[in-house]
Amino acid sequence: MENLMEKIVSLAKRRGFIYPGSEIYGGLGGTWDYGPAGVELKNNIKREWWRTFVQLRDDVVGIDAAILMNPKVWEASGHLESFTDPLVECKVCHERLRADHEDEIKEHEKRHQPRIDRIETGPKEKDFWTEPQKFNLMVEASLGVIEGKKQTVYLRGEITQGVHVNFKNVLDSTRIKIPFGIAQVGKAFRNEITPGNFTFRSREFEQFEIQYYIKPDEKEGKKWFEYWKNEVINWYLSLGIKKENLRFRDHTPDERAHYAKDACDLEYNSPFGGWKEFQGIHHRADWDLSRHSKFSSEKLTYTDPETKKEFTPWDIESSGGVDRATLFFLIDAYEEEKLEKDETRVVLRLHPKLAPYKVAVFPLLANKQELINAAKKIYDDLKIEFMTAWDDRGNIGKRYRAQDEVGTPYCVTIDFESLEDNAVTVRDRDSMKQERIAISELKNYLKNELQKTNTR
Ligand code: ATP
């Protein structure tokens, strides 16, 4: 769809999903703020993720580690050494791009071609770019109150390390046995060189991850790597992401991260240049635990309770971006539906579990107190159970359009008849069908409808 990204960015701002960070001060590159609808969507994604991967599983526990960590963590993890991207600089305009982003490089060269052609002795394509150089992506901060005695620390570049450094704590404080996972959701920070494509590449973003510890064995490694690939893709599918927009891509050995024994990306077919990384599944083997053990001198091993064999477990990581998930759920759910009389409606067909508001309540008219009172009573009752929106502006048609654009599955209208028959009109977002439901049945009706797993 043409200009789909422009439409998504504009809808996100207009309907309170996502705003540019610190906008009134001209913004801050690579930062975004979530509005009233956005925070609900993002929280729902995180809640569903936690429910599936922690609450419903006996083999995964959660933690929430600090963002600031002892800088030795980042030496041990290799981030201070290898968490760098090779950059090249354009000799014409001095813009810096990632050397491994071939599409952006080609696009940039195309943009400058007329200019290059005009410069007879100027840069030719082969020396158009500087040699690739490495830049560290870790964001620095300083801790302490006395000038000159401040300690340089880093805002974590990934949430992963908070899990590995707590491996022993979790083992000692729970009854969990290998194979087991530790899950975490939280913010990470990277000095991304080219933030962009809306929230896709930000400098402050949120991740959800599971580090799954297994026996150090090639066969086990393969088995759990495939297992987590399936779990991850099935989770997105269960929440309505279209199958044709997802695919796996194996990393080639030269693009694997410094720690990875095997790596694969779940990719999404985005409107900004096609397939893009959504989530990574990495076989990290014993890289992290061994390194932390070496740098901290703590023993980070596991003793099999049956065989009494001691070993350093291997780790299969699944690591996703909450902001990327939010963006891709938005894009995937966006639809322009042709109606009668050349009319079009924009509707976000978000899975009901993810929809920011489950139901909206409208009094038919805003200037009739008896309608407002009856509607308010229903609204107050529903909001105990569901995230509920209230709207009494404009006409009903406009209110439906507004709720369609935030993906609210049901709208409830209280009209004059309601005062007589104690029933309301419930309108379905996807089919636009309207049904008359008794007020006494309304809560149960909505609960049942919302529990249906897929609305498509
Ligand atoms: P990319 O190749 O896109 O830079 P990556 O391979 O560096 O990503 P990981 O380090 O594997 O990413 O991070 C795991 C997940 O965190 C990614 O799959 C993505 O969903 C999310 N993520 C990483 N960097 C960013 C970012 N700058 N902004 C938003 N989300 C991000």
TrEMBL record:
One of its GO terms (molecular function) is ATP binding. It catalyses: tRNA(Gly) + glycine + ATP = glycyl-tRNA(Gly) + AMP + diphosphate. The keyword Acyltransferase does not apply. GO terms for cellular component: cytoplasm; extracellular exosome; microvesicle. It is found in: Cytoplasm. It comes from the Bacteria. Signal peptide: none annotated. Residues 6-356 form the Aminoacyl-transfer RNA synthetases class-II family profile domain. GO terms for biological process: diadenosine tetraphosphate biosynthetic process; glycyl-tRNA aminoacylation. Substrate binds at R98, E158, F205, E206, Q207, F208, E209, E317, S318, S319, G320, G321. Keywords: Aminoacyl-tRNA synthetase, ATP-binding, Cytoplasm, Ligase, Nucleotide-binding, Protein biosynthesis. ATP binds at R190, N191, E192, F200, R201, S202, R203, E204, F205, G321, V322, D323, R324. InterPro entries: aa-tRNA-synth_II, aa-tRNA-synth_II/BPL/LPL, Anticodon-bd, Anticodon-bd_dom_sf, Gly-tRNA_synthase/POLG2, Gly_tRNA_ligase_bac, GlyRS-like_core, tRNA-synt_gly. CDD domains: GlyRS-like_core, GlyRS_anticodon. Its EC number is 6.1.1.14. Catalyzes the attachment of glycine to tRNA(Gly). Belongs to the class-II aminoacyl-tRNA synthetase family. Homodimer. HAMAP family: Gly_tRNA_synth_B. This is Glycine--tRNA ligase. It comes from Candidatus Colwellbacteria bacterium RIFCSPHIGHO2_12_FULL_44_17. The gene is glyQS.
